[in-house]
Fold this sequence. Notes:
The protein is mostly helical. The chain is 82% helix and 0% strand.
Amino acid sequence: xxxxxxxxxxxxxxxxxxxxxxxxxxxxxxxxxxxxxxxxxxxxxxxxxxxxxxxxxxxxxxxxxxxxxxxxxxxxxxxxxxxxxxxxxxxxxxxxxxxxxxxxxxxxxxxxxxxxxxxxxxxxxxxxxxxxxxxxxxxxxxxxxxxxxxxxxxxxxxxxxxxxxxxxxxxxxxx
Length: 175
């Protein structure tokens, strides 16, 4: 199948017998697998996850070969890999958020820390305290906080920044 172009390989995968489809997929892998793997490595800096992305991209191609219409097979594979990389980044962000939330929860559950935090929060201006509680405690995005407080996005970010700085000063002063 070396003289066959990528479009023909996709057609064989979509309508050919299982042995033909496997052979067509193998040829596509030989042609484009290294490029997909290089892309995933650069994006993730993690060899194992890069190989996972490579495998997932070719699984999608095998499953959805009939969806390939025009353009470059390599570009389609890289687009699939890019979506998988974004999914991985989102998964990592969620894991970090859960980890930070767990650490915050442990700190809040410590009565001494909780009392110090409550006392420091009470000393903040009401606007900064409200912005911080909505942003940090409730985990809302800045634009959601702005909408709730009826102020601009810039104001919300400023209140949050100033509130965190003041809170840090207050808590470090108590140590």
